[in-house]
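Standup notes
- DV: blocked on the single-chain target, sequence here:
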Amino acid sequence: GGVRQVVNFTQKELIGVDSTTGKLLWRMPAKSQYEENSVTIVPYKDMLIISREGMGLSAIRVEKEGGQLLPREVWNTKDAQLYLNSPVLQGNTIFGMSAMKKGQFFAIDADTGKTLWQGPGRMGENAAILNLAGKVFLLLTNEANLIVLPTDAKEFAPLVQYTVAKSPTWAHPAVIGNRIL
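- DV (later): unblocked, structure below
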């Protein structure tokens, strides 16, 4: 919208705030059942890719109209909805874990919102996703499965999968050299 701003979720809204003055520039509803918006917003070109409970995954563009800034939806897909999972951008593809089907990995074209592929369901409630040098994703589910997936995957076809614990894993992994903590 031509204004440098901070964009973030609050308990019940998605807002844009002037980065210099702190003035509220725009808002849009984002009420969730438990008033928790925990998904990271992904900037892509002149859009913001967001997920709101019950509304799927969307791209919005903030546009100036009549002296006001207004968020406008560019695309929306109901094929994925994020909860406690932040997506990762690789090139023009958004990768993430949808809360649908009790946890389903997906790839979506960030320009159009078209679903490129969806993995099987029942993968878990949550996953931390790391992009390693644009070559592979490390997907760590809360069910202690560490999945290695090529970033250029045309379908959900892991290179390898490991069970890393006998209890749930909620901590985000860290890669240090050739080790994963």
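- Follow-up: The chain has no helices and 17 strands.
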